[in-house]
Design brief:
Layout: H1 10-34, E1 38-40, H2 41-52, H3 57-73, E2 87-89, E3 97-100, H4 102-110, H5 115-118
Antiparallel strand pairs: 1-3, 2-3
């Protein structure tokens, strides 16, 4: 007699996607801190790729897309107010210089940040 086990893959996908987003957010934060608090987005992406030791151009391109997607989803100049956003474009909406949002940076320094609450 055989038995069939049914399982729902959707939560697994969401959790995996959420975990990847969380990892990228943490990497962006670390890169910005390592680069002096703000940096051109190419520098942030290159820093993260170097930390991951990515050499393959296709892997770097995929990482770049993921980082840009996550940054945009959590950026105050792209529709989120300053209290909800983690990141900002330092010189305005067209800026390519990234930094932490002021309110997020303050909470981070105080040690009262739970990244899980910020992931969209």
């Amino acid at each position: 007699m055989s038995s069939v086990v049914a399982f729902n893959r959707v939560p697994v996908r969401r959790n995996t996607r959420r975990a990847r987003r969380l990892a990228i957010i943490a990497e962006i934060i670390q890169a910005l801190e390592n680069l002096g608090g703000s940096a051109h987005y190419d520098s942030v992406i290159d820093h993260i790729a170097a930390e991951r030791k990515l050499i393959d151009p296709n892997a770097r391109a995929a990482l770049r897309r993921q980082i840009l997607e996550v940054f945009t989803a959590h950026c105050e100049t792209d529709g989120k107010d300053g209290d909800q956003a983690m990141f900002r474009k330092v010189y305005g909406p067209e800026s390519r210089r990234w930094g932490l949002s002021r309110s997020f940076h303050e909470r981070l320094q105080q040690g009262v940040v739970d990244l899980e609450q910020h992931i969209v």
